[in-house]
Design a protein that fits this description.
Structural class: alpha/beta
Cofactor: pyridoxal 5'-phosphate
Pfam family, one: Aminotran_1_2
Strand content: 5-15%
Radius of gyration: 23 Å
Helix content: 40-55%
Enzyme class: transferase
Number of helices: 16
Bound molecules: 4'-deoxy-4'-aminopyridoxal-5'-phosphate
Distance between the termini: 58 Å
Shape: globular
Largest sheet: 7 strands, mixed
Number of strands: 14
Order of helices and strands: HHEEEHHHEHEHEHEHEHEEHHHHEHEEEH
Pathway: Porphyrin-containing compound metabolism; protoporphyrin-IX biosynthesis; 5-aminolevulinate from glycine: step 1/1
Subunit structure: Homodimer.
């Protein structure tokens, strides 16, 4: 009943002085409402040891137990005892903050160890950690491309916003190749001639759950003398013998110049990184504003992430269970006639094709069935391909898959959503 209470009861003073620009902001948001893509975040309390169960706090303050089907903590590592143990032990030992940027007192030993661990994971000379995967792409791509004179960037059409921002911030010329289209990529490489080239792409594409032909892209890169930058955000921890991702699974990790990943999804923590040659990483470390001018990840987070990476290097049980549960979820949804997009990965998109219906379906699932799946609308996916993106984990059991299937079927019927997904190429 002390400072925090006083803070909450402090009078609201915004907009009381100077010019009132509030109308601009309200209008911008009302445009989103008009386009039916105003976002509402469910207020979720995660409970250690209970994943994928969680508590949903409604706007009126009441709570309901729910099953989370859209977490990117794909393997539940955020609640793994070794990971939680590493974080709490390090927080007790070192405190909670990093204390500064990497350059100014923030270069703590757990962070240095984590970078070694990540370099080893991907078989590279060096690793460099950023405060998020987003920043690692934005800072990594922009800095690398900027440092190569006259660099042309070739970027997959479905690349994540963080990569697009990296390309934009580089100021370099770019060409977008059609998604996973090797012929188009080759055409652009030929057109580019002798100038330096950087190909940026992902391994697992997060919204469609499809996979890049990494080896074939490397063949083209070799043939036309291009550098390669691969985002393995939706694959690290999840694929490959030691959890290094699809490039490891496909035996082509050594052919990629820079591999980027996140510590926030398969590894269940927070932070992002790039790995590559010592020369490239030393340059990014020296020139990337998004690395230099921000406080480092706290030591406890670095220790937790390292524990997670180390654990998943040696344990395959979670990866195998993850794939099994994803396959079973897809099979159950397909058997119920729901329009599941065929994927070869753990990502299970169920197509709706309309922003309003998609949000209504998500609301219905949460309110009527205690199932939480965030709707995915434009601009994350193209208009008309709105969907529910389901991410099974090793901890979703057969009974939960059955409940999910029944709830989706009832929701589709209640809202009159078409079961045929022919518009999306769904069988
Ligand atoms: N790359 C891809 C492909 C992503 O989907 C995301 C986040 N969803 C990121 C990078 C950013 O990672 P982070 O969440 O660690 O910032």
């Amino acid at each position: 009943r002390l400072a925090s209470d006083a803070h909450h009861s402090a009078p609201i003073t915004q907009g009381k002085s100077g010019h009132d620009y509030g109308g601009f902001f309200r209008e911008a948001v009302s445009r989103l409402h008009g386009e039916r893509r105003y976002r509402v975040f469910a207020d979720i309390e995660r409970v250690a040891g209970r994943f994928p169960q969680a508590n949903w706090r409604r706007p009126d303050g009441s709570t309901r137990e729910i099953t989370v089907w859209c977490s990117n903590d794909y393997l539940g590592m955020g609640q793994h005892p070794e990971v939680v143990g590493a974080m709490t032990e390090t927080a007790r030992r070192c405190g909670v903050g990093a204390g500064g940027t990497r350059n100014i007192a923030g270069n703590t030993s757990p962070l240095v160890d984590l970078e070694r661990e990540l370099a080893d994971l991907h078989g590279k000379e060096a690793g460099l950690v950023f405060t998020s995967g987003y920043v690692s792409n934005q800072a990594g791509i922009s800095t690398i491309a900027k440092l190569i004179p006259n660099c042309l960037i070739l970027s997959d059409a479905f690349n994540h916003n963080s990569m697009i921002e990296g390309v934009r911030h580089s100021g370099c010329e770019k060409r977008i190749f059609r998604h996973n289209d090797l012929a188009h990529l080759e055409e652009l490489l030929v057109e580019a001639g002798d100038r330096p080239k950087l190909i940026v792409f992902e391994s697992v594409y997060s919204m469609d759950g499809d996979v890049a032909p990494i080896g074939k892209i490397c063949d083209l890169a070799d043939r036309y003398g291009a550098m390669t930058y691969l985002d393995e955000v939706h694959a690290v921890g999840l694929y490959g013998e030691r959890g290094a991702g699809i490039a490891e699974r496909d035996g082509v990790m050594h052919r990629i110049d820079v591999i980027e990943g996140t510590l926030a999804k398969g590894f269940g923590c927070v932070g992002g990184y790039i790995t590559g040659s010592a020369a490239v990483l030393d340059a990014v470390r020296s020139f990337a504003a998004g690395f230099i001018f921000t406080t480092a990840l706290p030591p406890a987070v670095a220790a937790a992430a390292r524990a997670s990476v180390r654990y998943l290097k040696r344990s395959k049980v979670e990866r195998e269970a993850h794939q099994r549960q994803a396959t079973q979820t897809k099979a159950a949804l397909e058997a119920a006639g729901l329009p599941v997009l065929h994927t070869e990965t753990h990502i299970v998109p169920v197509m709706v094709g309309d922003a309003e219906l998609c949000k209504a379906a998500a609301d219905h699932l949460l309110e009527c069935h205690g199932i939480y799946i965030q709707p995915i609308n434009y601009p994350t996916v193209p208009r008309g391909t709105e969907r529910l993106r389901i991410t099974p984990s090793p901890f979703h059991d057969a009974a939960q898959i059955e409940r999910l299937t029944a709830a989706l079927a009832k929701t589709w019927d209640a809202l009159g959503i078409p079961r045929t997904g022919s518009a999306f190429g769904v069988a």
